[in-house]
Design goal:
alpha+beta; 3 domains; six-stranded antiparallel β-sheet; four-stranded antiparallel β-sheet; 3 helices
């Protein structure tokens, strides 16, 4: 074997050993080897659904949005059309607890008259696919504000008119409606009392000057609202909350004390 061939073999060996050492160091640091392969299944599951291109149920009648719009004849041969459109005000979260993102939003429908009806709808994950739900009417010519997901519920906030007011009057009455996904259906939840009403009761009953309440948390099993309370008086090992009973409209401090008492 010539000196030149021996030199080539040594160089190749150095390259191979260096490559093995590099990937070994990457593995020891918890880093996989670099590659340009994209996991399309993961991307598909997170971003592969679009509420503007899905089918929804209006009282049992399917309506399919294409690029956020659907047009259907009011009656066969009629020039009037029912126009359904994506409006917006999205909220994205895991509504059905399958660790996959879902989306709720507002859409409108008009059948040629003066009314514009607003609905809440959702697209949820069912296994590896996403599907549109039934829709629920919010009202005619309302003024949508925000859509939230809190305490396991979809909350739609909007303004409507006072009872008896003309549709020419701008909406001025704040409304919050609550919804949940139950068995793949969108269902309205009657809380009996909103967080705003509960907090008003809590502030009158539970706190004094210099004290404050945190955000509310609703317990549907007991029909109560819980507000973390920052009180002047404290008890060791306790985390006080003001609890409002939605049925009786009364409130009291629950000290939520933990830990065993050491006997004397």
């Amino acid at each position: 074997m010539t000196q030149k061939n021996i030199l080539i073999i040594i160089i190749v060996a150095i390259v191979v050993i260096g490559g093995v050492g590099y990937f070994a160091r990457q593995a020891s640091m918890g880093k996989p080897p670099v590659n340009n392969v994209v996991d399309t299944n993961k991307v598909e599951k997170k971003t592969g659904f679009d509420p503007k291109n899905a089918t929804y149920s209006f009282d049992g009648q399917d309506v399919t949005l294409v690029n956020g719009r659907s047009e259907k004849e009011v009656a066969q041969g009629s020039q009037s059309k029912t126009i359904t459109q994506y409006f917006g005000n999205e909220v994205r979260a895991d509504f059905n607890r399958d660790k996959t993102e879902d989306v709720a939003f507002i859409m409108t429908q008009n059948s040629g008259g003066s009314g514009t009806f607003y609905y809440v709808a959702a697209v949820i994950s069912l296994g590896e696919v996403h599907t549109g739900t039934n829709v629920i009417l919010l009202g005619d010519r309302i003024a949508p504000q925000t859509t939230e997901f809190k305490n396991g519920m979809i909350i739609v906030n909007y303004a409507q008119r006072k009872e008896g007011e003309s549709f020419t009057t701008p909406p001025s009455v704040g409304v919050s409606k609550y919804f949940k996904i139950i068995d793949a259906n969108l269902v309205e939840i009657d809380l009996k009392m909103t967080e705003t009403d509960a907090k008003t009761i809590a502030e009158k009953t539970c706190i004094k000057g210099g004290e404050a309440l945190g955000e509310g948390s609703y317990n549907e099993n007991s029909n109560t609202w819980w507000f973390d309370a920052n009180l002047n008086a404290t008890k060791e090992g306790c985390n006080p909350a003001c609890v409002v009973d939605a049925k009786t409209k009364t409130a009291e401090i629950n000290w939520r004390c933990t830990g065993a008492i050491i006997p004397k």
